[in-house]
Specification:
Blueprint: E1 5-10, E2 17-22, E3 30-33, H1 34-38, H2 46-68, E4 75-87, E5 91-104, H3 110-123, H4 125-129, E6 133-140
Parallel strand pairs: 5-6
Antiparallel strand pairs: 1-2, 2-3, 4-5
Helix pairs in contact: 2-3
Length: 141
């Protein structure tokens, strides 16, 4: 299986701008720029897209892991926070991803949920892709 996305950039870094599109059409010419990445301008940025991909991937992995353990989640709600730091030797680097999930899972104990969540974090394809430290807070609600 292969998935594609594309980016187009016009101009220099500080004043230029670009668009990001996905093969599926979920994103079509979504704007991004220096200001959407490093300031608060409207549009997206690569780190936000990584966070979205990781949140989605982990949540699906957790759903499967719970199913395999004999549980069905009523709801799984995950937020991924990507941390990017400016290091003098290497410039901007994604250094961490923090996953925060809240789940409503009938019949599962807190201990079993923590075990299944940790396995889903480790097994999620996006978790395996990233070299950054990935942390998780998983809560039953």
């Amino acid at each position: 299986m292969k998935r594609k996305a594309s980016a187009v950039w016009n101009g220099n870094l500080a004043n230029g701008n670009g668009t990001i599109s996905t093969e599926s059409g979920a994103l079509t010419a979504a704007p991004y720029s220096f200001k959407t990445r490093f300031e608060s301008a409207r549009g997206t940025n690569p780190e936000e897209l990584i966070a979205a991909a990781h949140a989605g991937c982990f949540t699906m992995a957790l759903s499967l892991a719970l199913q395999q353990a004999g549980f069905t989640a009523e709801t799984l709600n995950t937020t991924a926070t990507v941390t990017m730091e400016n290091h003098p030797q290497t410039s901007w680097t994604v250094t961490a991803v923090h996953l925060e999930t809240q789940a409503k899972v009938p019949g599962v104990s807190a201990q079993k949920f923590a075990e299944v969540s940790a396995g889903a974090k480790a097994g999620c394809p996006i978790s395996r892709l990233l070299k950054a430290e990935i942390t998780l807070d998983a809560k039953l609600v």
